[in-house]
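Run log, item B.
One chain of 537 residues. Sequence copied directly from the ordering sheet:
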Amino acid sequence: MAQLNFLVGDIAGNAEKISTATAQARDHLHADLIVFPELSLTGYPPEDLLLRPSFIRQAESILQHLCSEMHGIVTVVGCPLATSKGLYNSAVVMGDGVILATYNKQLLPNYSVFDEKRYFLPGKEPLVVVVSGVHLGITICEDIWHPGPVVRVAKAGAQLLINLNASPYHIGKWDQRLEILRQRVRESNVPIVYVNLFGGQDELVFDGGSLVISPDGSLVRQAPFFSTGLYTADFHISEAGLIPIKGDIAEKPGFEQGIYQALVLGVRDYVEKNGFPGVIIGLSGGIDSALTLVIAVDALGAQRVEAVLMPSRYTADISNVDAELEAKILGVKYHTLPIEPVFKSFLQTLKPVFAGLPQDISEENIQARCRSLLLMAISNKTGKMVLTTSNKSETSVGYSTLYGDMAGGFAPIKDILKTTIYRLAHYRNRLSPVIPQRVFDRPPSAELRKNQTDRDSLPPYEILDAILHGYIEQDLSVNELISIGFDRGTVERIARLVSSNEYKRRQAAPGIKITSRAFGRDRRYPITSGYQEWIAA
C-alpha cells in the first residue's frame, strides 16, 4: 500500500516517486503487487488542469514511459485516461513493461468538495485481473461507498478487492470509512485493501490510514494516519480462499490530536509545495494567534516562522507580555512595531472626510488594516507568506476586518470554531507548555477600542458555536434550532450575520478543511440573494 504524498500537476515528479516506490516494494519488501492512490500520477484533485489538452497529453506520455519501467512486480496507478468517448478517472494495472488492464471509475462524486462529473465520464464495467494466481477486483474511491460496483466485481469472480482512494480528512471520517468498508465486505464476502492518499492540497488534507478488512469485517491491517510510507498487506492463499494475515494496526488519533495533525500537515504542505521560504504571523497575545504560531512552528520549524507584535493604544500590556513570551518559548524571531504612528497618520488624512462624524467601527477597522499593511510589507520584502489567524466563529458572522485581520495567504484555523480553538490549544500545551495560562483565562478581545471584549458583539462562544455547528455544518433551519431550545432572537441574528457576510468570506484566504462543511469550495452560497430564512421563520 503506497501511502504517498504527490504534488498536483507535477506529473514527472509524481512518476519518479511511483517508480522509486515500486522498485523498493519489489527489491526490499518482495511484494507481488503495489497499489498507489487515486489519480496519483497527476495528484488529486487536478481540477481544471484536466480540461487542458496539453496536461492530458503529458500524463499519457509519462504513463507510457512509466509502464516501460515496470518489471518484476505488478503496479496499480491512478491516472486520467483519454479515449474517443471522453476522459475517465482510471486505474492502470502494469507489469513486465506493458499495461495489463485498465479500470474506469464508475461512481463520480459531485457533492461537498468533489466535482468529478465536470471532468470525467463514468465507467460501466467491473474489472477482475489475475496477479500471482489471485483474482483481483479494482475499484476507485466513491465506488466503495455504494454497494453496486463491489457486488458486481465480486460476482465477476474477485477474490480480493483493491480500492484506490483520495479521501480527504474531516472530523469523524475514519469511523465512516470503516463502517462503509465493513458493509461492503458483508455484501461481497471479499476482503478489501483500501489505499488512501497522504498530504495537503490547498484546503484539503489527506490523512492516509490505508487498511485491510477481512471477509468477517475485522480490521487486520491499519497503516498510520498522517504519515507517508509503504505498508505491506500479506495474504495466505488456501483452498478456502484468500485469508488476510493480521499485521500492525496503527492507533487512531483522538479528536484534538487528529485535528491538530491535519492543521500541521496542511500548513507544511501549502508552504512547501508553493515554495515559500517561511511564514509571518501577527502575534496579538490572544488564543487564535498563539495557536496559529505553534502550528506554524510544528509544521516548519522555528527558524522559518517570524512573529510581529503590533500593539495599538488599546492593547493591554499583558497582551504584549504574553505574545513576547510565546515567541521566546518557541524560539521564534519577532519584532514589535507599534501601529499608533500609522493609525494617527490615517486619522489625520481622513480628518476632512470624518469631520463631525462620531467614532465607530471605522476607526477599529483602520487599526486592523494598519496591521495588515505592515505584515504584507514584510511579506513582500522577505518572500515569506502571511498566515491569517481568523477562526470559523468569527468569519461565519463577519467578526473580522476585510483587508485587515483577514488579509494573508493562508488561514490555518479558518474551519475551527472558537470553542475547538481552546481545546486544541490545551491539547498542544499537554505535549509541552507553549501558550501561557493567562491567554486561556482572559476574555477574548480584538482590543480595537477601550475595554472591548468579544462578548460586547457576540453571544458567548459556547452558544454561538453550537448554533453555527447546527446552521452551517448540519444545515438545520432557524425553526429547527429554535425548537432545540436556542433563543429565537439570537438564532435569527446569527442567521442574518452568516448570510450578510458571504461577500467577506468569498475574499478570504484559503484554509484547511477539518469539518464536514467548510467555507470555500465546500459550502458555496450566492453573495447576492433574496432568500431570508429568518423572515420565513
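Observations after the first pass:
- The chain has 17 helices and 20 strands.
- The first strand starts at residue 2 and ends at 3.
Flagged for discussion on Thursday.
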